[in-house]
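Private note to self, pasted from the team thread so I don't lose it. Backbone tokens:
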């Protein structure tokens, strides 16, 4: 076999572990129960991956799995799981909100933790500008949020589970 196809230093190359979405300084890591369960399932998958890498003596895969497990452990340690009351009177993490813009256009989304956000599926992180500005508001409240470099006016028209 040609030496060009042998990579003897593969085990010594650094392993890149991507950091999770950051939280602003001093902001609690709010998370819904569904988000917590998803992170616990991710931990189980990573532990299984680590076990397979250890069994295969794949040092790069071991380092990668350990790094991702460390990142995940930090996120779980800082988590504050929020549970919605039976009757929601104000906007909070876990709630689904409906907002109306001044032009009459409506926006509906669920406020979730940063690890469970998926805007395309209608789940927005509580740290997103519109969600952060909406927190603690009640139906009928009016507020502004920075959207695309402009302050946009919203009215809260619904808050539910």
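Design output:
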């Amino acid at each position: 076999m040609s030496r060009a196809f042998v990579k003897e230093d593969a085990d010594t190359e650094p392993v890149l572990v991507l950091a999770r979405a950051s939280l602003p300084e001093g902001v609690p890591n709010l998370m819904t129960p569904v988000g917590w369960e998803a992170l616990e399932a991710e931990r189980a998958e990573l532990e299984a991956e680590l076990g397979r890498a250890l069994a295969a003596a794949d040092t790069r895969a071991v380092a990668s799995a350990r790094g991702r497990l460390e990142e995940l452990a930090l996120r779980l340690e800082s988590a504050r799981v929020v549970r919605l009351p039976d009757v929601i009177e104000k906007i909070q993490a876990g709630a689904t909100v409906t907002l109306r813009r001044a032009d009459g256009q409506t926006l509906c989304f669920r406020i979730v933790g940063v690890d469970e956000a998926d805007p395309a599926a209608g789940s927005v992180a509580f740290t997103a500008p519109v969600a952060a500005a909406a927190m603690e508001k009640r139906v009928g409240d009016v507020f502004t949020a920075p959207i695309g470099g402009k302050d946009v006016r919203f009215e809260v028209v619904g808050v539910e589970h």
